[in-house]
Design brief:
Length: about 280
């Protein structure tokens, strides 16, 4: 089926949240698509700027994700996550990606507004959905303060000034957490939801317990980004396959359980986000 635009995925996910899952390997993309089909839920396949750097370019993995999404029976989109350069955003657009995040959070407020506004104008002439970030999310390569919180009035002003389509906000989560101990500020989420006229995005969701994710959606969070939880499950499955057999060398025999573990976790999360 054709790729589904992100606004349509958001509508299809309601009253639940839209699960957005980071893709690092082909196995991630295959697992996410299969899980979405099994759960009968929409989902987003995300490729981060860090993953682009890991592979050396965007095109190979992006084209694979676009084909997997197009061939899937589930409603899926492909999204470029945490792009800090206009060049990478244009590369994504040339490949057919119609949803991107511009991350100008390391800039001061005025510079972030100016850069995001220009990119939003460019994206909107090409029907590209643009997510941006205000209020640094903790733990991103040391650049963000873990205690950061987004001010609702400032967030509303930022959206009005930039015309972005979605906003990543800081409400208590942190990137790359291995423990699920993050406590979200649900009162702040509710105030942001009431003040900001575009969907809110929760980054660093892997560190949030299931009950916290459900509460965040109930209080107004829309798009839920997850990465580390999938990688933990995949790595655990890899270790289980490799540890007892030091002669195992066929990647299919250890990547298969890793892919299955990702699929199982995504299926669980998609059902959770639907409630």
């Amino acid at each position: 089926m054709p790729l589904t635009p992100v606004p349509e995925l958001i509508t299809a996910a309601r009253p639940g949240g839209l699960g957005a899952f980071n893709v690092i390997t082909l196995e991630h993309a295959e697992a996410i698509a299969t899980a979405a089909e099994a759960a009968n839920r929409p989902a987003v396949l995300q490729i981060s700027e860090n993953t682009v750097k890991y592979h050396g370019s965007l095109a190979p993995l992006a084209l694979a994700c676009l084909r997997i999404a197009a061939d899937s029976t589930a409603p899926l989109a492909v999204h470029l996550d945490h792009a800090t350069s206009f060049e990478l955003i244009t590369a994504a657009a040339e490949l057919g990606i119609t949803s991107v995040m511009y991350d100008g959070s390391t800039l001061d407020y005025a510079a972030n507004v100016a850069a995001t506004k220009d990119i939003a104008a460019w994206c909107h002439t090409r029907d590209i959905f643009l997510e941006a970030e205000l209020g640094e999310v903790g733990g991103k390569d040391g650049a963000h303060a873990p205690g950061a919180r987004t001010d609702p009035a400032e967030a509303a002003d930022f959206v009005a000034a930039t015309t972005v389509d979605a906003l990543a906000v800081a409400v208590g989560s942190s990137h790359a957490m291995h423990t699920r101990t993050a406590e979200l500020d649900n009162d702040l989420i509710a105030r942001l939801s009431a003040k900001v006229p575009v969907p809110l995005v929760l980054h660093g969701s892997s560190g949030v317990p299931d009950s916290g994710l459900s509460a965040a959606i109930h209080h107004g969070m829309t798009k839920i980004n997850l990465a580390t939880r999938l990688n933990i499950q995949a790595t655990t499955a890899l270790r289980t396959a490799l540890t007892p057999d030091t002669t195992l060398s066929d990647p299919r025999k250890y990547l298969t359980p890793a892919r299955t573990a990702i699929q199982s976790e995504v299926t669980h999360l998609l059902h959770l986000l639907a409630t």
